[in-house]
Amino acid sequence: MSYQELIISNRFRDKVAIVTGAGSGIGREIALRFAKEGASVVIPDINLEAANETADLIKNMSAHALPLQVDIGNPENIKTMIRETINAFGKISILVNNAGTGVREPLLETQDDAWSKVLSVNITGTGLCIKYAAPEMKKNGGGKIINISSLTALVGLGLPVYTASKGGIISMGRAISGELAPFNINLNTIIPGFIATPISESLRKMGLEKEISEKIPKGRWGTPKDIAGVAAFLASDEADYITGSVIQVDGGLGNFFDLGKGYREAYKYKPIQ
């Protein structure tokens, strides 16, 4: 069964959300979800055309959107993003650190500049977005921060540089959550599993969608809406007492290792001696 979207009208009325990397995929779906529930949404993306497309979708809902061309690996771009958000909407209520990059290369074949680029966006960029958004949240009595990590941070799936950066997001988030909690700022991390987005399209075109689905306890890839629903909850008042948490949205893949049909049949029918 696919995810069933449950919209709570005006849950985020008068809220201002920044969703980095919202030009497509998970980021776009989170931005649309917040807009559907009443938020004004800032859409920073390195691809301005994609950011504008998301903004148009939001404006068609009669909601407010601000597309920005932002490289999260550039600290000055991050400062400009915060300044433009305040100029346009006067505050920041929600920050979703979704923007990221990666390389599909073994460690021994990874170029030094690629290593630096991935860490500058995924780790340093995420940290600086929090650093510069949190004071604005503090001015207005608090806020919600949601970091997007990856199942690779918990399970060895290759991609060593990307894995390192996504593991760092989890550790960094736990540390920062304690620092920000006295200011009524909650920080939680979502760990997506295999999600059907433009980024994963190449894997699916290789015919791996069915093969991987068979390894997932829920039997399917996730959708961006699966992630957006959890993000909406974590950004809401219902999650006020949740901070520093890491939530897997992976269909159970990170918790259950599938040894194949033969093992499942043996496990089902043969008693353990």
Task: Break the fold down into its secondary structure elements and pairings.
Blueprint: E1 16-19, H1 25-36, E2 40-45, H2 48-59, E3 65-69, H3 75-89, E4 94-97, H4 112-139, E5 143-148, H5 160-180, E6 185-192, H6 201-205, H7 208-213, H8 224-234, E7 246-249, H9 261-269
Parallel strand pairs: 1-2, 1-4, 2-3, 4-5, 5-6, 6-7
Keywords for this entry:
273 residues; alpha/beta; Rossmann fold; seven-stranded parallel beta sheet; 9 helices; globular
In summary, what is this structure?
The chain is α/β, with parallel strands linked by helices and 273 residues long.
Based on CA atoms alone, the radius of gyration comes out at: 19 Å
Task: Give the tally of structural domains.
Answer: 1
Low-confidence residue ranges: none
CATH topology group: Rossmann fold
How helix-rich are the residues, as a percent range? 40-55%
Structural class by sheet pairing and helices = alpha/beta
Write down the overall mean pLDDT.
91
CATH top level is Alpha Beta
Explained architecture:
The protein has 273 residues and is α/β, with parallel strands linked by helices. The protein has one domain: NAD(P)-binding Rossmann-like Domain (Rossmann fold, 3-Layer(aba) Sandwich), CATH 3.40.50. It is 44% helix and 14% strand. It is built from nine helices and seven strands; from the N terminus they run βαβαβαβαβαβαααβα. It has helices at residues 25-36, 48-59, 75-89, 112-139, 160-180, 201-205, 208-213, 224-234, 261-269, and strands at residues 16-19, 40-45, 65-69, 94-97, 143-148, 185-192, 246-249. A seven-stranded parallel beta sheet has the order 3-2-1-4-5-6-7, with helices on both faces. Helix 1 packs across helix 8. The longest helix is centred in the middle third of the chain and has 28 residues, at 112-139. It is globular, with a radius of gyration of 19 Å. The protein starts with 15 loop residues before the first strand and ends with a helix.
